[in-house]
Amino acid sequence: MATFLVLYGTGEGQTEKIATRIGDVLIDRGHGATTVDANEVSPDFAIDDFDAILVGASIHAGKHQRAVREFVTTNRDSLATKPTAFFQVSLSSADEGGEAQAAGYVEEFIEATDWHPDRIGLFGGALRYTKYGFVKRLIMKQIAKRKVTKMPEADPSGDIEITDWDEVDAFAADIAAFAEGQLGITPPTADDQAGLE
């Protein structure tokens, strides 16, 4: 069993939801997973207590959360010694036409932090119209019309979730398998997993 840290920054909560889902997949695979908001990390937080680290951030106005950038920059040397992954949540990732823009945000993050994660995941986020003020709601509706060609139906509140959960699950399974290989851990068998239930 490996211990995973899933650290994230979130705006309206979709990145937190994705981080939680990743943690659940890792736990279902037989590993330990701790999910932490980057804004709640204390200065004495010890990432050396974890075998592998996943870091997630969302894009707002073309930028990732400052707390996530600071965490990565501060812990860059320790991150370099472990299996790592970075996942980004944005509207650009929800549409094929926005893939280059989404990849550009990741490149800027890597350049700014000088961190080179082993795996990278790009996920569509959500439009939380119920959390926006009047002006932001209008702006986000216009952006969504331009960027998201296959808009899913809104839930009863009017919010729209664009995350492909199968992609999230596959990403979590991939980083788990990668970490198992790097750490020399035998992947749990179906019998092992049945014993955890």
From TrEMBL:
GO terms for biological process: heme biosynthetic process. This is Protoporphyrinogen oxidase. It comes from the Archaea. Gene3D superfamilies: 3.40.50.360. GO terms for molecular function: electron transfer activity; FMN binding; menaquinone-dependent protoporphyrinogen oxidase activity. Transmembrane segments: none annotated. Pfam families: Flavodoxin_5. InterPro entries: Flavodoxin/NO_synth, Flavodoxin_CS, Flavodoxin_dom, Flavoprotein-like_sf, Protoporphyrinogen_IX_DH. Residues 4-170 form the Flavodoxin-like domain.
